Amino acid sequence: MAGTYRFSFGPWNVHEGEDPFGPRVRETIPFEEKVKFAVKAGFGAIQFHDDDAVDVTLPIAEQNKKLAELKKMLDDNGLEAEFIAPRLWFNPHTIDGGWTSNSAEDRQYAIDRCKRAVDIAKELGTDRLVLWPAREGSYVREAKDSKLAYDRFVELLNILLEHDKTIRILGEMKPNEPCDSTLSPTTGHFLALASRTIDPDRVGILIESAHAMLANLEPSDEMGMALSFGKLWGIHLNDQNGLKFDEDKTFGTANLNKAFSQVYILDKYGYGNNGEYVGLDIKVLRTQKQDVSFAHLANSKAIFEMLVEKVRSCDQKYIDELIAARDYEELSFYILKVIMGKA
Fold first, then answer.
1. Could you check whether the bond before residue 178 is cis, i.e. omega within 30 degrees of 0?
2. Does position 193 have pLDDT exceeding 90, yes or no?
3. Which of 22, 100, 109, 255 could form a disulfide with 136 if both were Cys (CB 3.0 to 4.6 A apart)?
4. 52 classed as catalytic
5. Residue 307 contacts by C-beta under 8 Å, 6 or more apart in sequence?
6. What pLDDT score was predicted for residue 334?
7. Is 0.85 topped by the overall pTM?
8. Predicted confidence band at 12 (pLDDT cuts at 50, 70, 90)?
9. d(CA 254, CA 246)
10. 145-157 pLDDT, tens per residue?
11. What confidence tens digit (pLDDT) does each residue in 18-65 have?
12. Residue 342 placed within a domain
């Protein structure tokens, strides 16, 4: 059941190169230029944080006017808004987390901003809200009551599901960074929380390759679990060189075999056939010059498409025979030959 693929990326994937150890090295590229690239390179949607889409401090009427202008720009270019994600982690109210904060005032700020993000999503014509629990964790275990924090996570999900009866919530889990340890670090954790909500059918998963690797898990296995639940509603493909900070490398460039495995499971089970996007979440390298700031996006899309060809060229009957014989050494060798174009 081969997948049908459409691609998306976020405007933050093309940035100025500033990091904790150095200043910006490139000029800001206007959003309009990113839209032009998306059209030219064959992307179908743009991912948005709430404040990528609009100034979230504007009065609602003015906000919605700006959102209508943005939606028209997307429509005119044949693009969609894939999702909205509330960017909570930069605000002073979320120093100690948002909905899991020990402060009632700060928790209310996070709830209100998430509800506003839902409203922004609907104005842009998407029913997808992505939640990344960036600071919903701890640096010191005793600083937060983990049982209470999980209850508050479920409470937030219920509030948002009640706020809009058509919104779908996608959890994007990550085990660490910026927190030392994040609550709900994996797909399984979030699906367990989803089962406690008032409408589990509207709560699913967005899996990011690097986030799974940071939990020392295989991204394809995480995808397989979500697929088995019918809950894989989004992906962020990238790559990661071991257990360190979130690198967001170009897809397939650190471990081509892991990339192949992800494409294999996605294609086998028809990911994309229900409108899901192949989302990219990759950062332009700090060393890149201004005029090649989009190369990592074009390259990741091309690598995915080449791997689809490799996956579909596999002799599945031969693979099944090797599996039946438990000849996993030959299976591993065969997959490598496929990747290298020698099968």
1. yes
2. yes
3. 100
4. yes
5. 252, 259, 260, 263
6. 98
7. yes
8. very high
9. 13
10. 999 999 999 999 9
11. 999 999 999 999 999 999 999 999 999 999 999 999 999 999 999 999
12. no
Assess whether pLDDT exceeds 90 at residue 166.
Answer: yes
Return d(Cα 303, Cα 342) in angstroms, integer. Answer: 18
Q: Which amino acid is at 99?
A: W
- Of 49, 189, 211, 296, the active-site residue reads 49
Mean pLDDT, the chain, integer: 97
Contact partners, residue 204, CB within 8 Å, separation at least 6: 168, 169, 170, 171, 194, 226, 231, 232, 233, 234
Range of the domain at 33: 7-312
In a domain, 148, yes or no: yes
Separation of alpha carbons 219 and 31, rounded Å: 31
* Inside any domain, residue 322: no
Token pair for residue 296? 């990592």
Between CA 133 and CA 172 the distance in angstroms is: 8
Phi, psi for residue 91 in degrees, rounded to 5: -90, 145
Residue 317 lies inside a defined structural domain of this protein: no
Tell me which amino acid residue 156 is. Answer: L
The answer to whether the beta carbons of residues 335 and 327 sit under 8 Å apart is no
> Of these residues, 51, 52, 151, 221, which one is catalytic?
52
pLDDT attached to residue 159: 98
Is 49 a catalytic site residue? Answer: yes
**CATH number for the domain harbouring residue 276:** 3.20.20.150
Number of Cβ within 10 Å of residue 102's Cβ equals 13
Section 313-317 average pLDDT: 97
For 297, phi then psi, to 5°, come to -70, -50
Closest CA to 257 of 310, 315, 322, 312: 310
Residue 66 buriedness (CB in 10 A; 0-12 / 13-18 / 19+): middle
Cα gap 261→251, rounded to integer Å: 12
Q: How many domains does the chain have?
A: 1
